[in-house]
What does this fold into?
Amino acid sequence: MMLPLADLLLTPDDMAAVDSAAAVSGIDSYGLMEKAGQAVAAAALRDFPEARRYVVLCGPGNNGGDGYVAARALRQAGASVRLFHLGDPQRLRGDAARAFVDCPVSGVAIGNYMPHRGDVVIDALFGAGLSRSVPDDVAAIIARVGEAGVPVIAVDLPSGVDGRSGQILGAAFHAARTVTFMTRKPGHLLLPGRDLCGALEIFDIGIPARIVRAHAGGLIAENTPAQWQAKIPSAGADAHKYKRGHLVVFSGGPNATGAARMSAMAGLRAGAGLVTIASPPEALDVNAGLLTAIMLHPVGDEAALQKWLADRRLSTFILGPGFGAGEKARQFCLALADRHLVLDADGITSFRDDPQRLFDAFAEGPTRLVLTPHEGEFGRLFPDIAADEALSKIDKARAAAARAHAAIIYKGADSVIAAPDGRALVNANAPPWLATAGSGDVLAGIVGGLMAQGAPAFEAAAAGVWLHGLAGQHAGKGLTAEDLVAAVKPL
It folds into this structure.
């Protein structure tokens, strides 16, 4: 399915290629800059009509060109406008130079700006293309504006935020509003960039969708149902529990059974037809006393597991929550190499000394493995990828997925879900109160429940993360893992 442009995330390099291709196709590039600057001015007048003056900070490139257009439009609307420039505007080239010449507002060097009460700052310094730390004079202005509490409208992206990674390059404006063009960039959704954008508006300046799509570097988008809903099975009128799949969750010992039960109940609520907890014999009594709709089966060692696996209806497994790290976890995981597996927590840590052994076991055939690492666990499985500061979180998740032949859920407040073929989705619906004990166990259960019903690994992972966030929204602040399970709803 073709995604709306607003759902796509283009890197700054991709967007630069779009701009070049638009110009080559005959589209007036200055006309595009004119539309962008006019959109910024309109947003300023709409959202901050009470401003005593609009202060436009213009940088040395095309982002600054947008600022010069915005300053002209604001002056033409009768607003009070002050303009401050970074560097010598006489050295501007191309469309930015033309915008400077066309701007009737004279400017002075940026270091002269002192915030006044009633100011609204329009940040047109760098936008999404910045790849180095901001200059010291810009960092000083950012600090000055922040201390004064002056609202900021960012053009494309708050200056100082890396459009590719969302990281802060020395210092960055905290915008109240951000106006970007055609599509968002990864830095609009990845943290901390997302928190620095304020309210985000995507304005269509008229580049044809075919050009934008032609230069999108693989599918990178926000994680929404549009990306995966068609691949998630829905229950028909003839559905019964066996058609909806059988999910197995491995339990830890007598003192570590709660995590598995959380995962199992989440899988059931996500739509799995049958859910069984595979329990060590010594934990059977504890689990039996706390289970109703969840079935129970004793599995004490690898031999018992291999015997049970003769039942091919057991197709999807969750290993890790409360299980304990070590050789037993490794044995169980490798025994499941021909099944669908969500490997979480202790299951991931069990392979920290030899992750390639895990990857080799699932290397052939369709993607069957879902890995759910948080940052620390990611570093245990992919230490070289995790340590590469040149990579964004999206880059890291994609590299890990390709290496492991797995769907990766690189967890966090800005979870990234990646597939071995390069697709990546950034999740943005998770409330901060999801950061609580047992939350990850519930996520693993939702993903496993969807896989049990026949959803492909990547789509199950992406849908699971989104449904997990939705459940967190419904459960509300102060939720516990039990509350979260109760709020899980199937699609």
Remarks:
- The chain has a mean pLDDT of 96.
- The longest strand covers residues 53-58.
- The chain is about 40% helix and 15% strand.
- Residues 29-47 form the longest helix (19 residues).
